[in-house]
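User: Sequence for ARHG8 protein below. Tokens please.
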Amino acid sequence: SLLDLQEPSNKRVRPLSRVTSLANLISPVRNGAVRRFGQTIQSFALRGDSKSPGCAQKSCSRSAAPTPPKRRNSVLWSEMLDVNMKESLSTKEIKRQEAIYEMSRGEQDLIEDLKLARKAYHDPMLKLSIMSEEELTHIFGDLDSYIPLHEDLLASLGEATKPDGTVEQIGPILVKWLPRLHAYKGYCSNQLAAKALLDQKKQDRRVQDFLQRCLESPFSRKLDLWSFLDIPRSRLVKYPLLLKEILRHTPKDHPDIQILEEAIAIIQGVLSDINLKKGESECQYYIDKLEYLDEKQKDPRIEGSKALLCHGELKNKNGHKLYVFLFQDILVLTRPVTRNERQAYQVYRQPIPVQELLLEDLQDGDVKMGGSFRGAFGNSDKAKNIFRVRFQDPCPGQSHTLQANDIFHKQQWVNCIRTAIAPFQRTASTTAELKELPELSEESEENNPSAPNIRAQKRQSGVAEMELDESTSECGSILDSEDAKGAKTHRTSSGHRKTREKQLSGKRKETLV
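Assistant: Structure tokens for ARHG8 protein:
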């Protein structure tokens, strides 16, 4: 009975020691260490396969390793003070020192994570040929180059720290160091493409298996690879908050007051520049993925776009999904498609320049969405969160009724479109002339590139950063019968006329461009 009690204890210790060694074996880049890393992973599979189901079930219930924490264990600055020191400082000064210590501790954690991303992920995947060097460079960027940058700040803060653990002035250090964060422009601009490539590579079984084993190891703190790659960006947006917190607890007569205000202005300028560069890169990324069915769909305003105001998935009146892009000068409706396992966007109808764009904010229930039989038997298809976009001039194409996921995303779309068209709004007298415009029919889902008047618009879904995995099958048919379209238009013309009368009666609010 003594042996029976001791055996589970040994089983608990052994797996835990091996799991812990995984973190130690990943870090070195020498061939021997990499070989041991592979052998350790292989031993996990062999050990699991060699046990009988009954034994495995028994050991799992007894010897499961404790779940590693997601966050590091940290202590407050005030917890490291002795009683006499704490009594000599005011509450406001303690909070100020806490904020300074939080910034210092954050830099130390960031440096550790940047090094971990290289040693635990980049180097092993390169040595084991899980990814090519070119792919890893595209995903990781020049992450290593930022380690000395943050080490310099950490060293400066260390030099400014007195023997009692307090920092008298931090402002001059920050004013000198913060402009160096402009170095992150390139890294942040590449994040969208890096994330897309990483998601694509995760379809590879070897990549998937490696990342899963790392996720289950204690060193990862249950964070996936992208969480480590995104840490620099999340750190950047924290700097203004940290500086404002230090400033809030700094006495009015302290010499740091004006310098901290200057430092806040500097970091806000740096973030603004990074966001601008990131926006241009994101805009170009999506422009390169557009596919045109007809040369007439191409517009120089698309290629010349430098800002993407809003983008995401929306449904049209037939319930089909579209992916809509609102660039600063033009609205482009697309269908998401897959080309050789890569996402692309097939331009749907004719893009609408914002100066020619008309927006209608529709009320819930004004329009029935979907083409199913249910609409003939009840009101279940009356749509919510809908709006309509179209050309001001009816000649280029038809109108498009679009549905967002919820009221929040609908309002986000409506606000973005109104902001884009505001510079082109005409006088109130021109709004009155809108009532004289010929009626426009709602366009059917079929996409016919040969008909110039049927490529108008379909605008987008409410989530600006929604991931897409639509397949080519959702793309639908490109060419359909003109006779069928004509018949459908004839059958629905009376209904559209009634709808138009409702519009003119004032049930809907219109914004004219």
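The first strand starts at residue 290 and ends at 291.
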